[in-house]
Fold these 2 entries.
Entry 1:
Amino acid sequence: MLKKSELSLLLEQTQEIAKEAGAFIRKERQHFNIDKVEHKGLNDLVSYVDKEAEKLIVKQLSKILPDAGFITEEGTEAKAAATLTWVIDPLDGTTNFIHGLPVYAVSIALMEANEVVLGVVYEVNRHECFYAVKGGGAYCNETKIQVSKASSLAESLIATGFPYYNFELIDKYMGALKELMKSTHGLRRLGSAAVDLCYVAAGRSEGYFEYNLNSYDVAAGALIVEEAGGKVTDFKGGRDFIFGRQIIATNHLIHQEFTEKVKPILE
């Protein structure tokens, strides 16, 4: 098990790596050509920027933890490890990046066995670095953050993501959105799960939910939410949100009421 001092050092190093990748992404965006975009699947886009940022991150992380495994979005490295595994999304919000919409982030998490113990999300355009280690609280640019104190959906702003290739649940999903439109301050779709989670952690929204996600979309942000005092579950209220492809994150106070509203997705 990693010691507290080891985690602290790893956190500092991971932040620097995330910022280095973010600087590369920011520079490339200045002269980015949409003709360089590739399609991994229906509406599932990738560019050389994603791939090169991931290579940079993997190379640097391999120096600080040579024996750790990797789960990566673009397949730069897919090495399983018995104990420590990095979970990386080099550019969460690729579609935003491609279109020049300035909401995208670098997301890096470290798992020890089946538990996320470190998370860093660097929002590239706002230069905001959100981070946490297990049991150490959550921070943004050296300032401690916490979830909002809103106690009901009626006081809440909710974030979500829209399905873009798996439309199996779309009708039920739209029903849940309809209920939330009528019972909250409003809905937002930013286009980056990592950013959505960090905004819940920072009290900028009270809840976030989405389905059909991957581990690298949510691993870092989920830890940051929990360390900021929030609650994170799957749609059934369990803990299978890293690999279960569905997540609800809230300020804790509205979690039960919020979960009841999105239940139609499961029925």
Entry 2:
Amino acid sequence: MTLNRTRRLLLLLAFLLLGMSLVFVLPTSPKRPDPGVIMALPDYFGQWYGQEAAVSQKEYDALGNETRFARKLYTNGQGDAVYVSIVLGGQDMSTSIHRPERCLPAQGYTVTDSHPVKIDLQPRLLTITRLHSLRPLYTESGKPLISRNGKPMNEFSLVYYWFIGCTDTTHDHNTRYYIDSRDRLLKGYNQPWAYVTVMSRISQGLQPFGRTEEQTDAILTDFVQRLVPLIQKPGVRIR
């Protein structure tokens, strides 16, 4: 058993050394490919009108100087609001691209569910990640907001997100990492990646005629169907 184990370890080491050595012989690209996303959100489309949303200095400091942002808050005449953020990473992908599951807790949210969802773009299906999250509500003095039945009140939200590269889309961080590593090794370039976040709160119980979770899902699905052709370049393969 010890001899077989030693052979397996030596074989694995040989493959690792071979992979590292390929870095010196594979072709390199003279420039970084153009991103597959358009970094300009429309002022309006359909029933939605957008206003610029701020990017904090903390985000700039954390994500690096090369990171680019496009961010707006969209509203319609029915009292609905959808927050949209596009973050385009710089050369250092380890700091400028991450999953919303990492940054939502810093904003006070707790992610209670995460799973992939397919959105019909006719004739293709775009797979996104759907997050269900909550955060406590507070009064202006900083105390927990209490409902009439004496329980603390929470704000529930839905988040849809996906990654856009120069050639592919994916909803999955590990798949994005695989595509990025593959292109670095086989094509010799550092692919630019962006991630798109589309978010809306479940407003039932928080405002008159508020939306249920099911209604919020329907609003976000329709929103993404209309938004994708406006921000995603035609040559990007939709997964």
